[in-house]
Design brief:
The protein has about 600 residues and is α/β, with parallel strands linked by helices. The chain has two domains: about 260 residues, Rossmann fold (3-Layer(aba) Sandwich), CATH 3.40.50.300; about 260 residues, no CATH class. Helix content is about 60%, strand content about 10%. Strands 3-4-2-5-1-6-7-8-9 form a nine-stranded mixed β-sheet, sandwiched between helices. The protein is rod-shaped and about 125 Å long.
């Protein structure tokens, strides 16, 4: 891939990630700003893909290794204060080339070192100050080569963790690290970790052993170097040593010797010249490709972040699915009471009678119901006492409402149980959303609101009546013989109604028979053909009985489905609407075009 196309690809990824970060927060995924790959993207790739003219060189190392002294030698002036106390340098300092006002370095530094607040350097004591704010002190250097930005950094093993963060931020931005080591610090655990992470990003490094005794330490250097490189994975560009000489150090006249392949040391070399002779384009390419390698790592890079976003978004989708499909939760919802359903069927049946028949039946039922009211009560007690039958209630809806409330309790309980399982997650946003819905006092409110919604629903609405009448009309059209036979009996019975009513008025036995007959009829309508139902529904064959029973079952199934759907629709509108909107936002992240484009982003293995 050409450099320009690679740069365009990375810049596009950065744009997409800026948008995805906001979406991802809606499903509980925090910003990746503290991740190594993201820091490399923001502090290395983006700035350097935009401007390639400078090589950033940082002097790094542990406490009391003489980093500031090396830095001063590198820049040719006493710029950083040499503090012999541990963790002397608290903030990075940077020298930029003298440009006679032709280049504005402040915006360049701001892009490379976004963690820091830029402060113009005025004295060597500034970087030693203890502050919570991250500062980068900078100014133009008298001897800095045109293409170099040179930095001194805080200790990578400081007692103050804030110094580690500052040192890591400089490491991310740097093209080349000068790893300053000593006999005491080359194998320090924190030092090894810092440079191991640099090596994993293919960061070019110059290893410099400071305060070195050319006589006694020379024999140990191969072992020190081998152990350091083996523990960190470092492949140094070159290895230098600087002797311990206080007087030369104060005059900025320390000599630097390069370790030769045969184990001997060269004549003193110019440290600044060593840097300027580095292959600029090769170093930049190695640094950028090293950052891309970290960025493209499936276990720790951008794909790992996207995996986390996808997993979190799918958890939101799971919670959303539970609430959106709550009406499909397996709960035994009661069917319409037999008496109510019988009345609705009578209304439909009566609409098909001739006018004279409707009038007679209306009058008959009005008289009969008034006479039969006290008898129904007595017969209910008798049937309960002698036959163990369910008490015949004057209000058939009372028990129905009670069963519905029990169904609602079971419904809410099962939803809560399923949401509780999902809430056992490390996603703080999802956990908070669920607990605000079902936790503590919210749970009690959930049940109260459910019962309020249920009480607001009519047991039979116009929609169900239309469905019922359509079922009955369709059934009657498919079964004309059965309907014709029933209508013949109905007409005969209608003619006899006045005589029967008069007889009932003087015959308690007949009244009792009427009550039992009506009860049996309602039982048959509710559950199909039952014991004793043949007296009313028998149409001459067993298949006719099954036919009618299937009709009644279908009517009850439709009622239960419609009733539970109506309850859930109102309940959802009343209580879950805002929660569902937030769940939809979180669940929609993984389906977004931005996420898809981030998923499709990759760097060819041939480049890496």
């Amino acid at each position: 891939m050409e450099f320009s196309k690679l740069a365009q690809s990375v810049l596009e990824l950065d744009r997409l990630l800026d948008q995805l970060r906001i979406l991802a927060e809606s499903c509980g995924v925090p910003s990746p700003e503290h991740e190594n790959w993201y820091a490399l993207l923001k502090r290395k790739l983006i700035p350097q893909l935009s401007e390639k003219e400078f090589l950033i060189v940082a002097v790094t190392g542990g406490t009391n290794t003489g980093k500031s002294l090396i830095f001063n030698h590198l820049v040719g002036e006493s710029f950083s204060a040499v503090d012999r106390r541990a963790s002397g340098t608290k903030h990075p300092v940077c020298l930029v080339p003298k440009t006679a006002g032709t280049t504005s370095f402040e915006p360049i530094l701001a892009r490379h070192f976004e963690l820091f607040r830029l402060v113009s350097w005025s004295n060597a004591e500034q970087p030693l100050s203890v502050t919570e704010t991250h500062h980068l002190f900078w100014r133009e250097g008298q001897n800095v080569p045109d293409r170099l930005l040179l930095l001194d950094t805080p200790d990578v093993d400081s007692d103050h963790e804030i110094n580690w963060e500052r040192a890591r931020a400089v490491r991310h931005a740097a093209d080349v690290l000068i790893a300053v080591l000593t006999e005491q610090k080359y194998n320090d655990a924190a030092v090894r970790k810092f440079f191991r992470e640099a090596a994993e990003a293919d960061k070019p490094m110059i290893v410099l052993f400071n305060m070195f005794d050319l006589n006694s330490d020379a024999q140990h250097l191969p072992r020190w170097l081998e152990q350091f490189c083996e523990e960190t994975g470092t492949k140094p560009l070159t290895v230098l040593v600087a002797p311990y000489n206080k007087e030369q150090a104060e005059r900025l006249e320390l000599p630097f010797y390069e370790l030769q392949k045969d184990g001997t040391f060269s004549e003193p070399v110019n440290l600044e010249k060593t840097l300027t002779e580095l292959h600029f384009d090769a170093i930049k390419s190695q640094t950028l490709l090293g950052a891309l390698k970290i960025l493209n790592d499936p276990s720790t890079g951008v794909r790992s972040y996207l995996d986390t976003v996808q997993k979190s978004s799918e958890r939101f989708a799971e919670a959303l699915n539970i609430l959106e499909n709550a009406s499909e939760t397996e709960v035994k919802w009661p069917g319409l009471p037999a008496a109510v359903l019988a009345e609705e069927i009578r209304i439909w049946w009566n609409s098909g009678r001739p006018g004279w028949s409707q009038n007679i039946n209306y009058a008959y039922r009005a008289v009969g119901n008034k006479i039969l009211q006290p008898v129904r009560k007595v017969m209910g007690h008798i049937s309960s006492y002698y036959f163990g039958a369910k008490h015949y209630s004057l209000d058939p809806l009372a028990e129905f409402y009670n069963e519905e409330h029990q169904a609602v309790i079971e419904f809410i309980s099962r939803i809560i149980e399923r949401l509780e399982r999902i809430s056992e997650t490390d996603n703080p946003v999802l956990r908070r959303e669920i607990l605000e819905l079902i936790g503590g006092e919210h749970r009690a409110a959930l049940f109260d609101r459910a019962h309020t919604v249920l009480a607001s629903l009519e047991p039979v609405d116009d929609e169900f009546r239309t469905t019922l009448h359509n079922h009955l009309t369709e059934w009657s059209q498919k079964n004309p013989k059965i309907v014709g036979w029933i209508r013949s009996l109905d007409y005969i019975a209608t003619v006899a109604r006045p005589v029967i009513t008069l007889t009932f008025a003087v015959s308690g036995f007949a009244l009792g028979a009427q009550v039992v007959g009506q009860m049996i009829g309602e039982m048959a309508i509710a559950g199909g053909v039952t014991a004793g139902g043949e007296a009313i529904l028998h149409a001459g064959s067993e298949s006719a009985q099954r036919n009618i029973a299937q009709l009644f079952r279908k009517i009850q199934e439709d009622y239960v489905f419609s009733r539970s759907k109506r309850f859930y629709a109102e309940f959802h509108k009343e209580l879950w609407r805002d929660v569902l909107d937030r769940f939809r936002t979180g669940a929609g992240v993984v389906e977004s075009e931005i996420f898809r484009q981030c998923r499709n982003w990759t760097v060819s293995e041939s480049i890496l």
